[in-house]
Design goal:
CATH architecture of the largest domain: 3-Layer(aba) Sandwich
Structural class: alpha/beta
Helix content: 40-55%
Strand content: 5-15%
CATH topology of the largest domain: Rossmann fold
Oligomer: single chain
Number of domains: 3
Distance between the termini: 22 Å
Largest sheet: 7 strands, mixed
Strand order of the largest sheet: 8-7-6-9-10-11-14
């Protein structure tokens, strides 16, 4: 059964028992002024709405007019989230129809500001909040969720929100935003999506002193008590929900790698900051190499930042190089890292375990420019959260050793980007192949328009989730993310490359998600991980699962 049909049937059945004002206050079933004359009579709505019945298209027009009239992106975010709380179908119609315009509002970069202000703009709760005091009763808390059998949970503990650091319970904006994109970009029904924040405290002094902070004001849980809480959460999810993917989101490095290693072979789970970022960056590099020439693995890649994102990207690139015939040793040797202390090399004794596979024999330097000059990389990939770290001399050095230097400034939000699109293009005289984590406008340089790529994980994780749901895969594997990266890269046309665009237009994201979901499901069927029989027409089956945000008759 498709997610659209199951959601519609659930809404219709519930509407038979929900009438009048209660129906207008139910965001899943509310249609506002679009309730028909027959529905108004049958559902006790006569007189509770203005008398004129209006189409969904007119409602979209009104919403967009109001959103565009707001004075700031944060006010636009508040307006859209308020609409989501009132009328989810209309919210997703607006989002799908205007995704290019609204995605930077409901997700990065505006969602970062929204998380920083979350306690002060808080209006209505969404999702589940689980804190350390819920230990021993976590399954009961999960059973309070009103929609049975969610298919995707995005969970955070708020310790590393984007490049903004520890925002505690205020990080809930990230799971909410991610799940909005699952629905908008891949058609996963809203009632199948569950955002969760694990409130385990915060080290943010501002939040600890803020009387409006929505979380528990205490220091972060660490060590065995933290691990016990995560274990109970994972166990409770398995017992309460039957078919749920658990996506770990914005956990700090000290927890992200080990939690993924601990649970990836036990439950259906992944970490988007590691695997999703890795896949979207790999897709971008494959597309960029179509512009610059050469193949992956022929030359070095230098990462500025050695956390979840950087290691995730390198691991994905290594897997691709091995698939193309290189040994793992040679493939790892093509990936070099700069962390906060300098170049990651064998002689260092202060390296965290996740960095050691990428510690190579080389002289140590603390200077990014010196590293670029020594290693002569085909690409530099910024995942540091250190703004403006790709300076003019660094970009000049990249341009000196590459006809088409590949420059990825992937840190989010925009304020954390290692350089701007304009800097990358102008400093290289228009030769750069550029991508960023948050969006930049096209840059006009010497009569030519350069379209920056946005290496946004929204290209990857919605389609991966849809593919896993479609075949009910028992696990989410790295091979699935590799398949997703290749599928995404194949969606970049020659016309895209002519403008410097290395990702397809977001206007095509639902079609792209179908291609990615199909590729992911193919891996699951090939590896014996799927729990439902393979349909004759897999792409058509995947597409039929997708929720289309149009009103259904409730009478």
């Amino acid at each position: 059964m498709s997610s659209e049909r199951s959601g519609r049937d659930q809404a219709t059945a519930q509407a038979a028992f929900t009438r009048g004002v209660k129906l207008l206050h139910d965001p899943v079933r509310n249609k506002g002024t679009a309730f028909t004359e027959a529905e108004r009579d049958a559902l006790g709505l006569r007189g509770l709405l203005p008398p004129r019945v209006q189409s969904q298209d007119l409602q979209v027009m009104r919403v967009m007019g109001n959103v565009r009239n707001k004075s700031s992106d944060l006010e636009r975010y508040i307006a859209l989230i308020s609409l989501q709380d009132r009328n989810e179908t209309l919210f997703y119609r607006v989002l799908v129809d205007h995704l290019d315009e609204l995605m930077p509002i409901i997700y990065t970069p505006t969602v970062g500001k929204a998380c920083q202000e979350f306690a002060h703009i808080f209006r209505r709760p969404r999702g589940l909040y689980i804190c350390a005091d819920d230990k021993g009763r976590m399954a009961d808390v999960l059973r309070n969720w009103p929609h049975p059998d969610p298919r995707i949970i995005v969970v955070t503990d708020g310790e590393r929100i984007l490049g903004l650091g520890d925002l505690g319970a205020d990080g809930m904006g990230i799971p909410i935003g991610k799940l909005s994109l699952y629905t908008a970009c891949a058609g996963i029904h809203p009632t199948w999506c569950l955002p969760i924040t694990l409130d385990v405290g915060t080290e943010n002094e501002t939040l600890l002193a803020d009387p409006l902070y929505i979380g528990v004001q205490r220091r972060r849980l660490r060590g065995a008590p933290y691990d016990e809480l995560i274990e109970e959460f994972v166990t409770a999810v398995q017992s309460v929900f039957r078919h749920t993917i658990v996506q770990f989101e914005d956990f700090a490095n000290i927890n992200a790698f080990r939690l993924l290693a601990k649970y990836r072979d036990r439950i259906c789970t992944f970490d988007d900051d590691i695997q999703g970022t890795g896949a979207v960056a790999l897709a971008g590099l494959l597309s960029a190499l179509r512009i610059s020439g050469g193949r992956i693995g022929e030359r070095n890649v230098l990462f500025f930042g050695a956390g979840e994102a950087g290691i995730g990207i390198a691991d994905m690139m290594v897997a691709e190089m091995v698939d193309q015939g290189l040994s793992e040793t040679v493939a790892r040797g093509r990936c070099w890292f700069m962390d906060s202390k300098g170049l990651v090399v064998e002689s260092r004794t202060d390296l965290a375990p996740h960095k050691r596979p990428y510690a190579h024999a080389h002289g140590f330097t603390r200077d990014l420019l010196a590293a670029v000059q020594a290693l002569r990389p085909v690409a530099i990939i910024g995942v540091s959260g250190v703004p403006a770290s790709f300076t003019r001399p660094v970009i000049d050095a990249m341009a000196a050793c590459n006809e088409r230097p590949i420059i990825f400034a992937l840190s989010n939000p925009t304020s954390k980007a290692e350089c701007t699109a304009e800097q990358a293009y102008t400093w290289t005289e228009g030769r750069a192949v550029f991508a960023s984590g948050s969006p930049f406008a096209p840059v006009e340089y010497r009569g030519r328009s350069h379209v920056p790529g946005q290496g946004n994980n929204a290209y990857i994780f919605p389609g991966v989730g849809l593919g896993v749901i479609a075949c009910e895969s028992q696990r989410v594997t790295d091979e699935m993310f590799s398949a997703a990266a290749r599928a995404l890269a194949q969606e970049v046309s020659a016309a895209d490359l002519e403008t410097g665009r290395i990702f397809p237009a977001f206007a095509r994201i639902r079609d792209v998600s179908v291609r990615i979901a199909t590729a992911v499901a193919e891996v699951a069927y090939r590896r014996g991980l799927a729990r439902v029989p393979r349909p004759d027409d897999l792409p058509a089956y995947v597409r039929a699962l997708m929720f289309e945000p149009r009103y259904e008759n409730l009478t």
